[in-house]
């Protein structure tokens, strides 16, 4: 199964449109949104093209293919605009021989782990920093931010394809980080 991951949209319409265009061309069966979809949050500047209502409208067009978790900037009011659930703090995706534990990163992260078994994958956002690592048999994956990247990285998204998790630059598809997670 091929999956695409996007995190920390923060209401940016241009970033959302780019993500949806890449998703449509990718052949991925699902789009996993790793929180902070509509709101920019009180500590962040407004992202380029800030338009939460339009972002919700565009994402609703792919609602049947989206799995999403709640970020620290997501609220009950945001859920009222969206046709797919976003209020769960985590989701688990079971693939043959593989469990993906998806969370935004403010509750669970590499420093505060949920219960994980060897070879599980923790997928998180929140930091806006891309990551694809194997640490002592656990995999950590952060697709970065599609709207407000940090640490000098480009805006980015993630893909799971043929047992490889990779982070790609949003505007040129260059690979920023990757890790093989085949058992």
Provide an overview of this structure.
A hairpin with a 2-residue loop joins β9 and β10. Helix content is 16%, strand content 30%. The model has no long low-confidence stretch (mean pLDDT 96). It has three helices and eleven strands, in the order βαβαβαββββββββ. α1 packs parallel to α2. The strands form two sheets. It has a six-stranded mixed β-sheet, covered by helices on one side. Strands 4-5-6-8-7 form a five-stranded mixed β-sheet, with no helix packed on it. It has a single domain, classed as Metallo-dependent phosphatases (Purple Acid Phosphatase, chain A, domain 2, 4-Layer Sandwich). The chain is α/β, with parallel strands linked by helices and 183 residues long.
Count the helices. How many?
Answer: 3
Number of domains: 1
CATH architecture: 4-Layer Sandwich
Pattern of helices and strands: EHEHEHEEEEEEEE
Strand order in the largest sheet: 3-2-1-9-10-11
**Which sheet architecture does the biggest sheet show?**
6 strands, mixed
Strand content: 25-35%
C-alpha geometry:
globular
**Cα separation of the termini:** 15 Å
Sequence stretches where pLDDT stays below 50 over 5 or more residues? none
CATH fold label: Purple Acid Phosphatase, chain A, domain 2
In helices, the fraction of residues equals: 10-25%
What structural class should be given to the helix and strand makeup?
alpha/beta
How much is the radius of gyration in Å?
Answer: 15 Å
